[in-house]
Write a structure and sequence with these properties.
By secondary structure, the protein is an all-beta fold. It has a domain of 193 residues: Porin (Beta Barrel), CATH 2.40.160. The protein contains 1 helix and 16 strands. It has a 16-stranded antiparallel beta sheet that branches.
Length: 303
């Protein structure tokens, strides 16, 4: 739901509310609002204030296969894995906590020759909507900031899209501070696209006494070919680090995964797509090996 208006001076302003059917387990039916913010757009750029995600989660480049394309590492395969824990970074392919939809303020510059800069500030990690939280150590992170540079352009028929981001925050007592970087790029030529990304978050959020837990990092490479209304996609993801969001302390909190994915997406009609995806997950978490073969049929309608 995005009501929008425009003033006589050209200022565009409005709000966005996104409602989700959030829980179907045991026939429980609930909804949540993971986006609830006001915005203003003008010659100065864009400002958002409220519950939203961070810059790299919003527009950070991870390659050609993004959510909505079968064969994407950013899709829903992990929802159906669930026996042992995957590395936390498989759900945070960009900077480690950019996907945290807490109350924040985000500013983006206008686009200059394809370049755009974005900065965000989140007072308290995990605090959103009507929550008021002034305690310093009540959540994993506080005073969380993120900056990102983004570029999109074309030269002699070759398209280039790239981004680089850095995220930082102070951590609660006993945890390591957040420091996370991400960079990614996609190159397109005709019907072909190839790209990938790398993110490194070190020991962000680990217990200060941690042992036996390697640094958080994830890299991936993907390729895509389009034939009329059909998109063929494949991705490889290599991830390791903590299998929990915060507090990793011992080898039991460490996971290492190799993920191979392939998919085909078909545009049935404007706004209607359907896709078939296969994922092979080779994962070792807390010393336990658990491989999985996951097949998903994904149909989406957008209007």
């Amino acid at each position: 739901i995005t009501p929008t208006a425009k003033a006589d001076n050209g200022l565009e302003y409005g709000a966005r509310l996104r409602l989700r059917a959030a829980n179907g387990a045991s026939n429980v039916r609930t909804t949540d609002a993971d986006r609830a913010y006001i915005f203003a757009n003008g010659t100065f750029g864009s400002v958002q204030a409220g519950v939203t995600n961070g810059p790299s989660d919003d527009s950070g480049v991870i390659g050609p296969n993004v959510d909505g394309i079968s064969g994407s590492p950013d899709g829903f395969y992990a929802n159906y894995y669930g026996v042992t824990s995957l590395p936390y970074v498989t759900g945070s392919l960009r900077t480690l906590e950019s996907g945290d939809a807490s109350t924040k303020i985000v500013y983006s510059t206008p686009s200059f020759a394809g370049f755009k800069l974005t900065a965000a500030y989140t007072p308290t990690y995990g605090s959103s909507n009507t929550d008021v939280n002034r305690r310093k150590n009540s959540t994993a992170y506080r005073d969380m900031g993120e900056v990102q540079a983004y570029y999109k352009g074309a030269f002699s028929g070759v398209g280039i899209e790239a981004s680089a981001a850095y995220q930082f925050a102070k951590a609660a007592t006993g945890l390591e501070d957040l420091s996370s970087v991400h960079a990614g790029a996609t190159v397109t030529y005709g019907a072909f696209a190839i790209g990938g990304s790398y993110a490194f978050s070190g020991d962000s959020g680990y217990a200060k006494t941690h042992r036996g837990v390697d640094d958080n990092q994830v890299w991936l490479v993907g390729a895509q070919y389009t034939v009329g209304p059909v998109i063929l996609a494949a991705t490889y993801t290599d991830a390791k680090g903590a299998n929990v969001g915060a507090g990793a302390a011992t080898a039991a909190d460490y996971a290492r995964a190799h993920i191979y994915q392939a998919g085909v997406t078909y545009a049935v009609a404007p706004g209607l797509t359907t896709g078939l995806e296969y994922s092979y997950v080779d994962n070792k978490s807390g010393g336990v090996n658990n491989d999985a073969n996951i097949v998903l049929w994904d149909t989406r309608f957008a209007f």
